[in-house]
Design goal:
The complex is a heterotetramer.
Chain B lengths: L1 H24 L7 E2 L31 E4 L5 E4 L2 H8 L9 E5 L6 E3 L4 E2 L13 E2 L7 E2 H10 L6 H8 L2
Antiparallel strand pairs in B: 1-3, 2-3, 2-4, 4-5, 6-7, 6-8
Chain C lengths: L3 H13 L1 H35 L6 E7 L2 E3 L1 E2 L2 H7 L4 E12 L5 E7 L4 H10 L2 H9 L2 E4 L1 H9 L5 E5 L5 E9 L5 H4 L2 E5 H8 L5 E2 L1 E5 L6 H9 L5 E5 H39 L3 H12 L4 H33 L5 H6 L15 H27 L3 H5 L1
Parallel strand pairs in C: 5-9, 6-8
Antiparallel strand pairs in C: 1-2, 1-11, 1-12, 3-10, 4-5, 4-11, 6-9, 7-8
Helix pairs in contact in C: 1-12, 2-10, 2-12, 2-14, 10-14, 12-14
Chain D lengths: L1 H24 L2 H15 L43
Classes of the chains: A mainly alpha, B alpha+beta, C alpha+beta, D mainly alpha.
C-alpha cells in the first residue's frame, strides 16, 4: 500500500476517473450499437430508439468533456501537492517524471480532451442538419475517444501505483536543465535554431490557415506544437521565471507566476486543437471559419505572450538571460 | 496577394526543412553506449564527450574510469568503479560481461574482475574504490568491493567514512 | 437558449418539485458538511504549522541509543559551531513532565546566554517581568497548563517533584497568549538551569542541538558531516518534518475520505433510484413541452440546469455549515481526532480555505451526482409525447 | 417563481460572502504573530494537544514500524501530535 492512496486528492481523482470510466463503457456500447444498426431511412422501432440513445451519447460526451477538462487541472495541482511527500521533488515536474507513465498520461489526457471537443463541434453541426450527415464520422470520433479514455484509466492506475515514495526523484531543474553534455532539444537543435523554427512555423501556420491548405496546415500545426513545447520549456519559460536555470513546464501554473501557465498552455493547446479540428472538419466537408479564426487568434496570443515576456525582461534589465 | 503568400509559405517550409535536416545531420550528442565491440577490448574514452550511464555525469578523466562490455559487443562507460557495480546490479547479463578498469598505480586498462581495489581513494563519485593492479595490505578483491557497494559500506556513507578515515 | 420563458419554466419546475428535491438536498448537504468540516480542519492546522515552519531549525542533532533519545554532552556544540556554513547553533533543553498518569506538559528551558532566545523572550515579556523571570524561580505557562494548575489548587505556584526527590516550588509569572494555544497550550517555559533540574539532566547535558544552514545547497553536505560526528548521531531535517506532517494529515483526512466514498456511492444509488421513479406527472410535463415545440436538446438542457442547481445549492449549504462548525464553533469532537486530548481548552483555528480541498469536495460530489442522474434524466427527457399522454 | 429563485440564489451568495468576509476579517496576523513569539523561542513547531499515553512510542523523523502490514503508515491509534522525545 502506497501512502499516496491516502492523499485526499488522489482518492477523489481516481474515484472520479473510475466513475467517468463507467460512463465511457456505457457510451462505447451504445456507439458500437449505432455503427452496427444505424439506418436513418428506416422507420422501425429500433431506429427510433437509437435516435433517442444518440442523445444519451451526446449528453455523456458533454459531461465527459466538462469533467475531464476540470480533472486535468485538478490532476496537475494534485501532482504539485504530492511533491511534498515525494523525496527530491520540488514541483509537479519531478512527480510526473517519477515513472515513465506520467508524461504519457498527460499527453493522453490532452488528446482525450481534443477528441471530445472535436465530437462536440461535429455534433453541433450534425444536429443543425436534419439528416445527421456526420453521424458515422462523429461515432468514430467517440469510439476513438472512449478507447483513449480506457488507456487513460489504465495509465492513471499504473502511474499512481508505480510512484515510489522512498526513492528520490529529480527536481525540475535537473530534469529539464542541461544534463551534463547532453542536448535535451529534439532533432539536435540549439536555442537559436529552435527560436528561428518557432517563429517560422508560427508564420507558416498562419499563412497555411489563410490559404486553407489542409495538409500543410496539419503538418505545420503539429510541428509547431512540438517546437513550441520545447521553446517554452527551454527558452521562454526562463523569462517567465526570470531565472536562466529554471526550466519547467509546470511551475508557471502556480500563483507565484500569476497562473500565467494556464493562459500560455491553454492558448497553445486550444489554438492547436481548433486548427486540427478545422482541418479534420473541412476534410469531411465543413469549412468552419470560426475554428480557423479561433486557432489563428489563440496561436497569435500564445506567441505574443511568449515574446512579451522576453521583451519585458529586456526592457527592464537591458540584457537577455 | 494569394500568390505572394503561397511563395512565402513555400520559402518558409523549405527553410524549416533545411534547418531540421542540418540539425539532425550534425551529431553532437554525448556517447552513452558504443555498439559492435565484439572483441571485448577496452575502448579509448572520448573525454568530455562520454556520459557515465549510472550517474549521468560527463567522464572528464580516465583516472578510475571503467568500461563494461556485454557479450553482444555493446560497451558502456563509467567514471567510478562504484557506478559500474551499481549499474550492473540489475542487468540480466551481469555474469557474462567483460569489465575493464583503469588502474591508478600502473595507469592502464586491466580486467576489472581480477583487479584489486583500495578502500579510501579519491574517486569521482566518492565511493572510494580505486582500481589497482598490485595488491597491498589495504586492498580488497572485486567480489568484496561489489558486496561493499551493494551494502553501502563506502566512503559515501558518513559513518563508514568516519571509521575508515579516522575522523 | 436562456431566454425568458426557458428560465421561467426552469424556476417554476424547480420550486414546484421542491418536495421531491428536499430529501436529496438534505442528504447531499449532510455529506458535504461532514466532508468539508474534516478537510477544513486538517487544512487549517496544516496551514498554521506550515506558516511557522520557517522558524523550525534546518537540522536537529540528537543522540539515540536503541531508538531512545538520550541527553547529549554540551561540549559537542563547539565542534558543531566550527563546521563551516553552520549558523545559530542552539542548545535545547526540553522534555515532558507528567503531573499524573494522564496529564503532562512540555517543559522548555530557555538559555539566557543565547542571543536568539533572549530576543524572543524579550518579545514575550515586558522589562519588569523579564527581570523577575531572570532573578527568581518562576515560569511562563500555557493556558491549558494554567487551567490544570488552578483546578488542582496551585493558583500562584506549582510544586515540581524532581527526579532526585526534591520539591521545587516555581511561581507562575505569566500565562501565555491564548491565541497561540495551538502551540503553547501545554507548554511551560523555564530558565534552562531550572528545567535541567526538573527534567533530571546533569548540568553539562542538553536534550538536543538545533542549527541552521543558510545555504540550502550545503544542507546535504553538512548533514553528512554531522552524521559522521559521533556514532549515534541522529539528524532530522525540516523537509522530513514537512513530509511527515503531510503524510499524517493525508492519513487522517484520507481515512475519512475512504469511508466517505462508501457514503457517496450509496448516495449515488439513492439518487439513481429516486430519479428512475420519475412519476407520470413529470413525464406528462415533458410530453407537453415537447408538443409545444421544445426539442430534446432543450429538455436535456433544462434538466441539466435543474440538477446543476441542486448540486450548487447543496454544495454551498454544506460548505457553509462546515465552515460554521469548524471556525465559529471551533470543531467540538472533531478537533480531538486531529489533535488528541490533553489539558483541554478552546483552540482557535485560522480560517484558511484551501482551494484545492474545495475543488476536491466539489469534484467528488459533482461527478457522482451528475453521473448517477444522467441516465434517468435522459430517459425522462426523451419520453415520447404519445406514450406519456395516452 | 423567478423571484423566489433570485431570493434563494442571493441567500446562497450571502452565505459565500459571509464566509469570505469572516475569513478575511479574522485576525490571522495576530494569531500568527502569537504563534511566532512562541515558536521563535522554542523552535518546536508541533501542535500541543496530545493523548499522553501514546507519546513515547512514536518519534519525530522516524517511521513507526509497528504496523507490520503497512509499515510505511502510522497506526490507527497514531494520535499523538506530541512534542516528541
Amino acid at each position: 500500500m502506497n501512502p499516496l492512496f491516502l492523499n485526499n486528492q488522489v482518492i477523489v481523482y481516481l474515484f472520479s476517473e473510475a466513475a467517468l470510466l463507467a460512463l465511457t463503457i456505457l457510451l462505447f456500447a451504445k456507439i458500437v450499437k449505432f455503427l452496427w444498426f444505424w439506418d436513418f431511412r428506416s422507420y422501425s422501432n429500433r431506429q427510433l430508439k437509437l435516435e433517442k440513445e444518440a442523445y444519451l451519447a451526446m449528453t455523456i460526451a458533454t459531461l465527459l468533456f466538462t469533467l475531464k477538462s476540470v480533472l486535468l487541472i485538478f490532476f496537475v495541482h494534485t501532482i504539485d501537492k504530492l511533491s511534498l511527500i515525494i523525496p527530491g521533488a520540488m514541483c509537479a515536474a519531478g512527480v510526473i517524471s517519477a515513472n515513465s507513465y506520467g508524461m504519457d498520461l498527460l499527453f493522453i489526457k490532452l488528446t482525450v480532451i481534443f477528441t471530445l471537443l472535436l465530437f462536440l463541434i461535429a455534433n453541433s453541426y450534425d444536429l443543425q442538419a436534419k439528416t445527421y450527415p456526420l453521424f458515422r464520422f462523429k461515432s468514430w470520433v467517440l469510439i476513438i475517444a472512449s478507447g483513449l479514455i480506457f488507456i487513460e484509466f489504465f495509465l492513471d492506475i499504473s502511474y499512481f501505483t508505480h510512484i515510489d515514495t522512498s526513492t528520490p526523484v529529480s527536481c525540475c531543474s535537473a530534469l529539464f536543465g542541461n544534463l551534463e553534455g547532453a542536448n535535451p532539444l529534439p532533432f539536435g537543435l540549439d536555442i537559436t535554431k529552435l527560436l528561428l523554427l518557432f517563429y517560422m512555423l508560427y508564420l507558416g501556420t498562419i499563412i497555411a490557415l489563410t490559404l486553407e491548405t489542409k495538409t500543410i496546415t496539419l503538418l505545420t500545426l503539429l510541428l509547431f506544437g512540438v517546437i513550441a513545447y520545447y521553446g517554452v520549456v527551454y527558452f521562454f519559460g526562463t523569462y517567465i521565471y526570470e531565472l536562466p536555470t529554471h526550466k519547467c513546464p509546470f511551475c508557471m501554473l502556480q500563483r507565484e507566476y500569476y497562473y500565467v501557465g494556464y493562459l500560455l498552455w491553454g492558448s497553445l493547446f486550444f489554438g492547436l486543437f481548433f486548427g486540427v479540428i478545422w482541418v479534420i472538419m473541412s476534410q469531411v466537408g465543413y469549412n468552419i471559419t470560426k475554428a480557423k479564426w479561433a486557432s489563428m487568434l489563440l496561436l497569435t496570443l500564445f506567441v505574443a505572450l511568449c515574446s512579451l515576456y522576453v521583451a519585458i525582461y529586456y526592457s527592464k534589465n537591458g540584457v537577455l538571460l | 496577394m494569394k500568390q505572394i503568400l503561397k511563395i512565402l509559405l513555400t520559402v518558409i517550409l523549405l527553410v524549416v526543412v533545411a534547418i531540421l535536416l542540418l540539425s539532425v545531420l550534425k551529431k553532437d550528442a554525448p556517447i552513452v553506449v558504443v555498439k559492435g565491440n565484439l572483441a571485448q577490448k577496452p575502448l579509448p574514452i572520448k573525454l568530455n564527450k562520454t556520459n557515465d550511464t549510472e550517474c549521468a555525469m560527463l567522464i572528464k578523466t580516465t583516472r578510475n574510469a571503467a568500461e563494461v562490455v556485454a557479450p553482444d559487443g555493446r560497451t558502456w562507460f563509467f567514471d567510478d568503479p562504484g557506478c559500474m557495480v551499481k549499474w550492473l546490479e540489475s542487468k540480466p547479463f551481469k555474469e557474462q560481461v567483460k569489465i575493464w578498469v583503469h588502474t591508478i598505480d600502473t595507469n592502464r586498462w586491466i580486467d576489472g574482475k581480477k583487479a584489486k581495489y583500495g578502500v579510501k581513494d579519491h574517486t569521482a563519485m566518492h565511493y572510494g574504490f580505486g582500481a589497482r593492479e598490485k595488491e597491498n595490505n589495504e586492498t580488497i578483491d572485486f567480489k568484496q568491493m561489489q558486496l561493499r557497494i551493494y551494502r553501502g559500506e563506502t566512503l559515501a556513507n558518513p559513518k563508514f567514512r568516519a571509521k575508515l578515515l579516522g575522523k | 437558449m436562456l431566454n425568458n420563458s426557458f428560465f421561467y419554466f426552469f424556476t417554476l419546475s424547480l420550486f414546484k418539485n421542491r418536495k421531491r428535491y428536499f430529501a436529496i438536498v438534505t442528504i447531499s448537504t449532510l455529506v458535504i458538511f461532514l466532508l468539508s468540516s474534516v478537510l477544513f480542519l486538517s487544512d487549517s492546522i496544516k496551514y498554521s504549522i506550515n506558516s511557522q515552519l520557517e522558524l523550525e531549525p534546518d537540522l536537529i542533532v540528537q543522540k539515540r541509543l536503541g531508538g531512545r533519545v538520550v541527553p547529549l554532552d554540551e561540549s559537542i556544540v563547539d565542534t558543531i559551531a566550527e563546521i563551516y556554513g553552520v549558523s545559530q547553533v542552539t542548545k535545547r533543553v526540553y522534555g515532558r513532565y507528567y503531573f499524573d498518569k494522564e496529564y503532562s506538559a512540555l517543559i522548555f528551558g530557555v538559555d539566557f546566554l543565547d542571543e536568539q532566545s533572549s530576543k524572543a523572550l524579550a518579545k514575550l515579556l515586558n522589562r519588569e517581568d523579564l527581570k523577575r523571570f531572570l532573578s527568581s524561580e518562576s515560569m511562563l505557562v500555557g493556558e491549558g497548563v494554567f487551567n490544570y494548575f488552578k483546578s488542582h489548587f496551585y493558583p500562584k505556584a506549582y510544586n515540581f517533584l524532581t527526579p532526585s526527590g526534591k520539591i521545587k516550588s516555581v511561581k507562575i509569572l505569566k500565562v501565555l497568549d491564548r491565541r497561540s494555544n495551538l502551540f503553547s497550550n501545554n507548554l511551560i517555559i523555564l530558565p534552562q538551569e531550572l528545567a535541567k533540574e526538573i527534567l533530571g539532566l546533569k548540568s553539562n547535558e542538553i536534550s538536543d542541538i538545533a542549527l541552521n544552514v543558510p545555504n540550502p545547497d550545503e544542507a546535504a553536505n553538512i548533514q553528512r558531516k554531522l552524521e559522521g560526528l559521533f556514532l549515534n548521531a541522529f539528524i532530522s531535517g525540516k523537509r522530513e518534518m514537512q513530509k511527515e506532517y503531510e503524510n499524517l494529515f493525508n492519513y487522517k483526512g484520507g481515512l475519512f475520505l475512504a469511508l466517505y466514498l462508501i457514503v457517496v456511492m450509496t448516495l449515488s444509488l439513492i439518487l439513481y433510484q429516486r430519479y428512475s421513479l420519475a412519476n407520470s406527472l413529470e413525464k406528462r410535463e415533458v410530453a407537453i413541452l415537447r408538443s409545444l415545440g421544445w426539442s430534446i436538446k432543450d429538455l436535456l438542457g433544462l434538466k441539466a440546469l435543474e440538477n446543476i442547481m441542486l448540486v450548487l445549492f447543496s454544495f454551498t449549504l454544506g460548505l457553509f455549515l462546515g465552515y460554521l462548525y469548524v471556525f465559529i464553533l471551533k470543531a467540538p469532537l472533531l478537533s480531538e481526532l486531529f489533535l488528541g486530548k490533553n489539558l483541554q481548552t478552546q483552540i482557535e483555528f485560522l480560517p484558511h480555505i484551501d482551494y484545492l480541498s474545495l475543488a476536491t469536495i466539489f469534484i467528488l460530489y459533482a461527478t457522482t451526482f451528475l453521473s448517477a442522474v444522467l441516465i434517468p434524466v435522459w430517459r425522462v427527457a426523451t419520453t415520447e409525447p404519445k406514450e406519456a399522454l395516452s | 417563481m423567478v423571484k423566489e429563485f433570485i431570493v434563494l440564489a442571493s441567500i446562497l451568495i450571502l452565505f459565500i460572502l459571509s464566509m469570505l468576509l469572516h475569513s478575511l476579517l479574522f485576525d490571522t496576523k495576530g494569531s500568527k504573530s502569537a504563534y511566532r513569539s512562541i515558536v521563535a523561542l522554542t523552535h518546536i513547531v508541533e501542535p500541543s494537544f496530545a493523548p499522553s499515553s501514546f507519546e513515547p512510542i512514536i518519534r519525530k523523523g522516524k517511521k513507526s514500524r509497528t504496523n507490520s502490514i503497512y509499515p510505511e503508515l502510522p497506526q490507527i491509534n497514531y494520535l499523538d501530535f506530541a512534542y516528541a522525545q
